Amino acid sequence: METTADAPLIVPDPTDPRLTRRVGGIDHTGAAVETSVTVERPLTLFLNGQEIVTMMTIGDYPEYLALGYLLNQNMLRADDEVTGVEHDEELDVVVVRTARATDYQEKLRKKTLTSGCAQGTAFGDLMERFERVRLPAAELRTSWLYRLTHAINTMPSLYLEAGAIHGCVLCREDRPLVYMEDVGRHNAVDKIAGYMFRHRVEPADKIFYTTGRLTSEMVIKTVQMGIPILVSRSGFTAWGVELARQAGLTLIGRARGRRFLALAGEQRIVFDLDPGFVEEESARHRRKGAQDSEP
Amino acid sequence: METTADAPLIVPDPTDPRLTRRVGGIDHTGAAVETSVTVERPLTLFLNGQEIVTMMTIGDYPEYLALGYLLNQNMLRADDEVTGVEHDEELDVVVVRTARATDYQEKLRKKTLTSGCAQGTAFGDLMERFERVRLPAAELRTSWLYRLTHAINTMPSLYLEAGAIHGCVLCREDRPLVYMEDVGRHNAVDKIAGYMFRHRVEPADKIFYTTGRLTSEMVIKTVQMGIPILVSRSGFTAWGVELARQAGLTLIGRARGRRFLALAGEQRIVFDLDPGFVEEESARHRRKGAQDSEP
User: Fold this and answer.
1) What number does CATH give the domain A140-277?
2) Nearest to A115 among B53, B183, B236 (CB)
3) pTM summary value
4) Which of A143, B104, B182, B199 is the most exposed place for a label (fewest CB within 10 A)?
5) ipTM of predicted assembly, 2 dp
6) Closest Cα of chain B to A30: distance in Å?
7) Min distance B215 CA to chain A CA atoms (Å)
């Protein structure tokens, strides 16, 4: 699916009427106001006839979300043959079918919650796979990083339209390729994982950007996707840093304007641009964290 | 437990060495730096000999977290007699014992993920209880709201120390009473629910403040706790608004400086202060959303 075009392949569509709703209320002066709020709807996921989970999602790209969820839960393997993905919009159901027979009853019983509020993951299993991953050599030029974060922050998005949403962006060099948003940041990550699986995207030369915190879970998912570089405008947790170091992942947080902090895999960073020439974030485009809601 | 003192009963302890860790890395100029990051550790919860879940938490107040989790998952009833809560710090285990025999194997099997990344809740069950709650009449004076948010934003916290953390505050009138933080915002809510259960705190005259978004799950938990007013500096989701209206919860979001937006239960708001006299947030104390990490 590698492209040479400059435009991203998938960007948020803040004008999609299904994704936001106008609601009325009052403001701090008592005046009646109308505002846009993000829509969340249930989506129930089946794998080969077995009900796996019901997720709350904004509802775009249900097929990618379903595939990515199953991959990140280790219920779908990278070499599995997917024979069908059916989405029933009226029933809010998505069914994934694989050539391999599956049975995750046992797995669904034993769940671990991970930090930053989680989806419940069979943990031993997941760590075992995590430890086997070897991330490739790669480079991250600071000139790419600055162009990337500027492009992401200024791109039209549901965040800018209605707030209360998370964003994840798959990038190469200085270009955003796939930009997904969702109420749960794990959904946004999973949609990208599903996209990469469906289109056989090579992870080795990619950069993963998230608006969310760099928790253990975010690090584990990035490593499982095989992407060597993870960037966020938010902060770190101690275990996230520890796992990133263990896996050799380049972990960059608090990336705002010209500033950032790298707490793991620093050797991949190439300082090819004097940060003195980078603009600080303008107030107009400053993201205040994906949880924040100011449009 | 009602208090007449002015000081909050529980505030974050950013100097507790177990809650943050100093780690080294490099900054945007390539210079070596050291920074504080939030610690997340596993805590496995048992209810009467049955393993329920493993949570990732910063680790303070494990007893409140355990009780609150069980309450919010409907595994503990408001009238249950808790015969013991034991925390084993070395094993990272907390055991809650009740006079009533419990068996939640079946319940653990059927999980629904809710938005904003969730803990997996038996959903039908939860909605049934939600629909039975009748929230009391109450008032929220805007002078209280402004004093509250100012007090919360300027109080020493792990957020200010290390970022990447969520906060929830139980308040009465213009005073914060119990301020809990955690990597997962549901943990912070659950710790407050556990505190209220343990100390038989009356919810009717309380205000609940959260740094997180006003999702369906946050609304459901506040309503279940019986608190009539929910305030956040972050934004709304459509379903959160819908559920708040259904339950008659006062829902206030985007509360920053003098501004806020009420999208449900507006009748409880008493405009007793001219917002023109309220200061905008100073840059020094501006919270950028709990996911953000700038210390």
Assistant:
1) 3.40.140.10
2) B183
3) 0.86
4) B199
5) 0.83
6) 8
7) 9
Residues with Cβ within 8 Å of residue B7, at least 6 apart in sequence? none
Q: Residue ranges per domain, chain A?
A: 41-132, 140-277
Which residues in chain A touch residue B140, judged by CB atoms under 8 angstroms apart? none
Q: For residue A206, give how far its alpha carbon lies from the nearest alpha carbon of chain B (Å).
A: 20
Q: How far B1 CA sits from the closest chain A CA (Å)? A: 30
Interface of A with B in 69-108 (CB under 8 A): 108
Q: Which residues of A touch B235 (CB under 8 A)?
A: 37-38, 162-164, 291-294
CB distance from A156 to chain B under 8 Å? no
| Alpha-carbon torsion angle A13, A16, A20, A25, nearest 10 | 110
> Is the alpha carbon torsion for B8, B12, B14, B18 positive or negative?
positive
Q: A246: which 2 tokens?
A: 């263990």
Judged by a CB distance cut-off of 8 A, whether residue B245 touches chain A is: no
Domain topology for A41-132: Ubiquitin-like (UB roll) (3.10.20)
Q: Is the pLDDT of residue B113 over 50?
A: no
- CATH code of the region B41-131: 3.10.20.10
Give CA–CA dist B234/A163, Å, rounded: 8
* Each residue's pLDDT tens digit, B224-259: 999 999 999 999 999 999 999 999 999 999 999 999
Q: Which stretches of chain A are assigned E, i.e. beta strand? A: 20-27, 32-38, 41-47, 50-57, 82-88, 93-98, 140-141, 166-172, 175-182, 206-210, 229-232, 250-256, 259-264, 269-270
